[in-house]
Amino acid sequence: MAENKNHPVVVLAGGLSHERDVSLRSGRRVAQALRESGYEVVESDMNSEVVDLIARLDDPVVVPMLHGGPGEDGALREVLQLLDVPFVGCPGDVCRVVFDKSVAGTVVARRGFNAPEQVALPHDIFRELGATRLVEALAERLGFPMIVKPARSGSALGTTKVNSLDELPQALVAAYAYGPTAVVEEYIPGTEVAVTVLVRNDELQVLPAIEIRPESGIYDYSARYTAGSTRFIVPAGLDRTGAENVDALARGVVEALKLDGPVRVDMIVDDEGQAWFLEANVAPGMTETSLVPMALEAAGLDLGEVYGRFVEQAAEDTARRRARAEQP
Question: What EC number(s) has UniProt assigned to this enzyme (predicted)?
Fold first, then answer.
């Protein structure tokens, strides 16, 4: 093992979101990888003792591995910014935009990139204005099949592929179980692809794209976290046009959403090789079935070394900012 590095690292995982178990598994894996790279690592759940824990350490760097809720919606990161604690990944304002699929999709589409047509439907509007007519209007606007999902959730929780009008109300109910707003969007047939991008100081490295082939036909929660239920092809079996479009979309999304750190961009490649944005993830999973570790391995990169570089970058950026603030 290498000699301990200068900055102790606090890996935050767990929390109270629906993705707690996935978060804990991701946190353990990243923590172990950083230890093997020579870092002093403290693992902590998201609780009332976190702020005191950080204060007791000498110049720590936080690695947020919380999925869903405060871990990805910007709340935790804004607190860390308030406390002037360096951390790995996107700042709070960026996370707020990315975490809301209706907002992120709109931002990407307005920058000229392909994104499915969508409608954001808050539950109170759905209830008060009459479910029957709104369901019919969605069917007329988007056609079938369509995708229904929560605006603010991860791991495909509450996501349903809807093939007929009769299935739509129940799909909306499933989405509302995970948040007050559902996103209903057109279904783009094609190959689902995930692209990991490592972003540091406006420099980015696009890792090999991963082609996703779930046995069930939809990459839902079970397909994501049940070993053997999904086939992954790395690198994705795309032709030259498809590969170029995927790379261009990944880079465009990073710029449009102002992403930083290790991020993942999910997309669909249609039969003509056009890449369509689905969503971005500022705290991608790091479990044994997660996509980012697969991409790192395909690129010949070590998980601990990659996160170590992000830790050092976060510490350096904070030190420079503090130094500028102290100048007269």
Answer: 6.3.2.4
Report residue 170 as tokens: 């129940």
Active site residues: 19, 155, 225, 264, 266, 279, 281, 285
Rg (CA), the chain: 20
What letter does residue 207 receive in the DSSP assignment?
Answer: P
Residue that the structure tokens 């697969």 belong to: 294
Amino acid at 157: L
Q: How many helices (H) and strands (E) does the chain have?
A: 13, 13
Predicted TM-score of the model (pTM): 0.92
pLDDT in tens, 157-178: 899 999 999 999 999 999 999 9
| 126-129-135-136 Cα dihedral, nearest 10 degrees | -170
List of E strands, 100-176: 118-122, 146-150, 160-162
Secondary structure E strands in the chain = 9-12, 41-44, 61-64, 118-122, 146-150, 160-162, 181-186, 191-200, 203-206, 210-214, 230-233, 261-269, 275-281
DSSP reduced 3-state for 234: coil
pLDDT confidence of residue 326? 85
Q: How many CB atoms lie within 10 A of CB 241?
A: 13
* C-beta of residue 249 within 8 angstroms of C-beta of residue 274: no
Q: 146 vs 43, 136, 158, 179, 218, CA distance in Å?
A: 40, 13, 14, 19, 12
